[in-house]
Amino acid sequence: MKIGFFDSGLGGLSVFNKIVNDVSACYIYLADNKNTPYGIKRKNEVLKYVEENIKILVELKCDIIVIACNTATSIAINHLRELYKDICIIGTEPAIKLAANDRVENKEIIVSATTMTLREEKLNDLIKKLNIENKIKKVALDKLVEYAENGNYDENEVKEYLKDKLKNINLNNCSHFVLGCTHFPLFEKEIKEVIPNNIKVIDGSTGIINNVKRKIKENNLEENKTTVKLLLTKESNIFVNNFKRISKISDIDVSVIK
Ligand code: DGL
């Protein structure tokens, strides 16, 4: 069985890492490192990149495609499912529902994501549907994507950035911190260090993995020896090294898409 992962960069590893040692498969991880970050670009431009890259995973005959990117999911998932009706495409959404179900009475939920995800209809419709509009504090943390991609960030600089972004939120009145971008779990430690420890930090990766496992069963897909292929849209040794460090996998077949 072939499972494709897609993200603008390294963020998808926060999902990939939770399945790769558990389910044996041929994994293909496609990172659009040439065009990262997505969250601060124009929607139409990003839509074009997402379409091009998902087409590649479809052509490589992936049985399941995981869009391990909230930004790409928010703008493209419906359209992609229409386009590829026979392929199982699993998206990533900020775990707001999980937070809302677990919410402590009257407390607020911080939803962190990219600027694009926060602006998109998908997220705002969900908040409306859950009827918690006045309990949500949105915070765009686009710079975390850059820090992650550069790899050699300064922890203190990251924490100062986070403090600045959170300075107008009364943290004592919050019960949950939703990591609505797959790059953000890479900074869970720094995030936890700048917020009170009674705030629960959550992301959607467990839900996605359960979804993948369910689809494997439903489609009777068979496990096979694990291999990891990394496809990049731009050659980058820094990216490959960061990928190996974060995934803790060294045996990776790397190719650059021409
Ligand atoms: N990892 C991505 C997400 O989950 C995209 C970040 C970006 O490229 O801005 O939203």
Strand order of the largest sheet: 4-3-1-2-9-10
Number of helices: 11
| Quaternary structure classification | single chain
Query: In one word, what is the shape?
Result: globular
Characterize the main sheet.
6 strands, parallel
Into which percent range does the helicity of residues fall?
40-55%
Mean of residue pLDDT?
A: 96
Name the CATH architecture of the largest domain.
3-Layer(aba) Sandwich
Number of strands: 10
Task: Give the distinct bound molecules.
Answer: D-glutamic acid
Per the CATH scheme, the topology name of the largest domain is Rossmann fold
Task: Give the radius of gyration.
Answer: 18 Å
The percent range for strand residues is 15-25%
* Poorly predicted regions: none
Could you write a compact summary of the structure shown?
The chain has 258 residues and is α/β, with parallel strands linked by helices. Helix content is 41%, strand content 19%.
Describe this structure in words.
- This protein is an alpha/beta fold and 258 residues long.
- It folds into 2 domains: 142 residues, Rossmann fold (3-Layer(aba) Sandwich), CATH 3.40.50.1860; 109 residues, 3-Layer(aba) Sandwich (Rossmann fold), CATH 3.40.50.1860.
- The chain has 11 helices and 10 strands.
- The strands form 2 sheets. Strands 4-3-1-2-9-10 form a 6-stranded parallel β-sheet, with helices on both faces. Strands 6-5-7-8 form a 4-stranded parallel β-sheet.
- Helix 1 links the parallel strand 1 and strand 2.
- The chain is globular and about 50 Å long.
- The model has no long low-confidence stretch (mean pLDDT 96).
- The site of D-glutamic acid has 16 residues, from helix 3.
